[in-house]
Design a protein that fits this description.
The structure holds two protein chains of two kinds.
Chain A lengths: L2 H27 L5 E3 L11 E9 L12 E5 L6 E2 L3 E5 L3 E8 L22 E3 L2 E3 L10 E7 L4 E6 L3 H4 L17 E8 L5 E6 L23 E7 L1
Parallel strand pairs in A: 1-5, 2-6, 5-13
Antiparallel strand pairs in A: 2-3, 3-4, 6-11, 7-8, 7-11, 9-10, 12-13
Chain B lengths: L4 H4 L10 H24 L10 H34 L17 H27 L24 E8 L2 E6 L5 E3 L2 E4 L4 E7 L4 E5 L4 E5 L5 E5 L5 E7 L11 E7 L1 H14 L1 H4 L17 H7 L19
Parallel strand pairs in B: 1-5, 4-10
Antiparallel strand pairs in B: 1-2, 2-3, 5-8, 6-7, 6-9, 9-10
Helix pairs in contact in B: 2-3
Classes of the chains: A alpha+beta, B alpha+beta.
Chain lengths: ~230, ~325
């Protein structure tokens, strides 16, 4: 092989390796669902309030995994539902969270996570009624949880019951609308004063079809777990 | 045929220096100095510290290993530097070095010394595995521990691993379960480590306690905290997406403070404790009592007492 041919071969091989490395970094490390910004127009002073609205659906018809359960976040400006689980809030603020629960029940793996912790007053409101804990083993009334271990937050999501509605199906198209069977959970919590990324997760093994029910959507950001980005 | 010692030992060059002696004289004080510094100056700061008897024992082990390893590394360094500076090739010197033959005394010394070192380390390691106080070295001993604390009644703490959080159950206080880990100082602690899903690993770093958390297995580890303060708990077994964030802080407090915390928490968590399964060394979380009835009430086809049918989740 001539010298130019060898140089060309080596150059092409080198560029191929660089291209693969760049693809891996961009696709796997820098990629991911967008972050919904709740800091716009809100001063980062202590005590600032932000209102975050989310929903959890029994499926999602907007992704390549239509049978995976998933959370959605409502953009505060456009009011459109974003298929993402990452959101940005100011440090030292109060988050007033509203979560619309459209999914049915699955018992908690550990019933200790049926207790509400880390919210202001250690309480959540389900359709306006104060709740401090739910027993998912005796009543099968928990669909998911919204838990941020880094700040000790754990809120079980109550579920609607098919028998109460006379219908035979939960919402089948995502994002769901309030015309579908659902529960409305509201609670408030303080964001940390330390900026950073705080992961949140669901603690119900709702990844059906995967080992321990904890694969698939449970291990994928954008479905049943995500990040709360606390910024200054 | 082995040559005699006199034939095999290259005599010092006439009027030249004895290289072996020089190397030894450089190595010996350097090694002694390094060992003294390692043991007495850096040693007290070596991980994992002295917060518990098992941590102190592990720190002692690391100090001993360092003291044994440093002279070896220094010898290699001294020998290399000496070789490059004294035995380097000089212009015009094209002769081969003197031939080397077998040396029975050196061989015997080498075999004896290495055998003694290996046997010592085997004995030392075995002893340290059981120490401190022959209650284990802070590692998981399985469901039937051989080494147990000789004195005192241990505080029982069940460590439950689940993706991605450790929770702690205190059977001597009504079996409450908390995300907080408090321990009394000076009292033996028995950790009963298990998991509700995949394999985790409970690593209380400053306590020198490390035990795998396997589903369906009770892995017992002992320690006795010696100092009050905070310690870090980490999961040390890759367990999924948020494995790296599966960490929390534990606290070693006075006996009085521990009693107060435990009694207060038992009362605070009484309502949720009532929902927990009875305390057991292991749990099968795939079986939920009365779930059929509950799901039928909710209008959902029953899962036959399981989260999912027996063939679901499908094992890959």
């Amino acid at each position: 092989m001539s010298l130019p041919a060898r140089v060309a071969t080596l150059t092409v091989a080198f560029l191929a390796v660089v291209a693969v490395a760049v693809f891996v970094v961009v696709h796997y490390f820098l990629g991911g669902p967008p972050s919904v910004d709740f800091t716009s127009g809100v001063t980062a002073e202590t005590g600032a309030n932000v209102n975050v609205v989310m929903q959890e659906d029994p499926q999602n018809t907007v992704s390549t995994h239509p049978d995976w359960v998933s959370y959605f976040i409502q953009d505060p400006t456009t009011k459109q539902w974003e298929h993402t689980t990452t959101f940005k809030v100011p440090a030292g603020s109060v988050v007033n969270m509203t979560i619309l629960g459209y999914d049915g029940c699955t018992p908690l793996r550990n019933p200790v996570f049926g207790k509400v912790t880390g919210t202001i007053g250690s309480v959540e409101y389900v359709n306006g009624k104060p709740i401090t804990q739910l027993d998912s083993w005796s009543a099968c009334n928990v669909g998911h949880t919204f838990s941020i271990p880094g700040i000790g937050l754990n809120v079980p999501m109550a579920t609607p019951s098919l028998s109460e509605s006379g219908t035979n199906a939960f919402c089948g198209t995502s994002p769901c609308t309030t015309a579908s069977l659902h529960r409305t959970m509201t609670f408030s919590f303080h964001t940390p004063k330390t900026v950073g990324s705080y992961f949140w997760q669901c603690r119900v093994p709702c990844g059906g079809g995967f080992v321990d029910g904890f694969g698939g959507p449970m291990q994928t950001i954008g479905f049943m777990t995500g990040n709360m980005e606390v910024v200054s | 045929m082995a040559a005699s010692a006199a034939e095999a030992t290259p005599a010092p060059e006439a009027g030249g220096r004895n290289h072996g002696l020089w190397i030894f004289l450089i190595w010996l004080p350097t090694a002694v100095l390094a060992d003294v510094l390692l043991y007495f100056v850096y040693g007290p700061h070596m991980p994992p510290g002295t917060m518990s008897d098992s941590a102190a024992s592990q720190q002692f082990d690391i100090k001993v290993m360092s003291v044994l390893a440093a002279p070896v590394m220094i010898f290699v360094l001294v020998y290399a530097i000496y070789s490059f500076t004294v035995w380097r090739h000089r212009e015009g010197d094209e002769e081969d070095g003197p031939a080397l033959y077998g040396h029975a005394r050196i061989q015997a010394t080498w075999i004896t010394a290495t055998a003694v070192i290996v046997l010592f380390l085997a004995g030392f390691g075995s002893y340290e595995l059981a120490w401190p106080g022959f209650a284990g070295a802070g590692a998981g001993e399985g469901p039937s521990p051989v080494w147990k604390p000789a004195h005192g009644t241990p505080i029982q703490v069940q460590v439950i691993g689940q993706q991605w959080r450790f929770t702690y159950r205190y059977p001597q206080f009504g079996g409450f379960e908390s995300p907080d880990l408090y321990l009394p100082v000076g009292v033996p602690v028995q950790f009963n480590v298990t998991s509700l899903d995949v394999i985790h690993d409970f690593w209380a770093y400053q306590l020198g306690v490390k035990a795998d958390a396997n589903p369906g297995v009770n892995n017992v580890a002992y320690t006795t905290p010696k100092n009050v303060g905070a310690f870090t708990v980490r999961c040390d077994e890759l367990c999924g997406l948020w494995h790296g964030a599966m960490t929390n802080q534990g606290q070693v407090v006075s006996v009085a403070a521990f009693q107060a915390w435990a009694q207060k928490t038992e009362t605070q968590l009484a309502s949720i404790t009532a929902l927990l399964p009875p305390y057991a060394t292991v749990y099968d979380p795939t079986v939920v009592p009365n779930i059929n009835k509950a799901m039928a009430k909710a209008g959902i086809a029953g899962a036959n007492g399981y989260y999912y049918p027996p063939n679901d989740p499908v094992q890959p």
